[in-house]
Amino acid sequence: MLAAFDGDTSAYRALLAELARYLGPWFARRLGPAHASHAEDLVQETLLAVHTRRMTYDRSRPFTAWLHAIAHHKYVDHVRRTAIRPTVHLEDDAPVFAADDSANAADRRDVDAVLATVSDRTADLIRQTRIEGASVAEAAARHGISETAAKVSIHRGIKSLMGRFGGDK
């Protein structure tokens, strides 16, 4: 490096070649086998930084300490750049943000109170097919009964509810 400062271009070329041979394994050890392919990119970034910042090197201090500081900063920058950061696309924000259901809370309580007057299985079948939008086949499969049995249970449950709460209408 000192010869390069004094204008020896062949010494500077030899220095950069030697640094490339040294830095490749240095980065590969730190990156590990899974990310060793990034070592060459980091070598090039470090050599570029050495070249562009060579005037900041203090001749009275060890060259390797200066080089390792640059290489270490390039490594840290790489780790920060490639770190896994959880992101949520705006269209997929449902699990992240709670929906404001406060306006429907009273309606849900009323439906729960009405469905509490029929058997648990019938109430669940009605809830699944009429409120949640499941098919009769899906609801029947969840309860381990036939579709016909599910249809009969739903029909009788709704008829019972209409008799209690719907009057003659």
From TrEMBL:
Keyword Transcription regulation belongs to the record: yes
A molecular function (GO) term: sigma factor activity
Domain RNA polymerase sigma-70 region stretches: 27-82
Keywords: DNA-binding, Sigma factor, Transcription, Transcription regulation
GO biological process, one term: DNA-templated transcription initiation
Domain named RNA polymerase sigma factor 70 region 4 type: residues: 109-161
Pfam families, alphabetized: Sigma70_r2 (PF04542), Sigma70_r4_2 (PF08281)
Top-level lineage group: Bacteria
Family: Belongs to the sigma-70 factor family. ECF subfamily.
UniProt-recorded name of the protein: RNA polymerase sigma-70 factor, ECF subfamily
Higher taxonomy: Bacteria, Pseudomonadati, Pseudomonadota, Alphaproteobacteria, Hyphomicrobiales
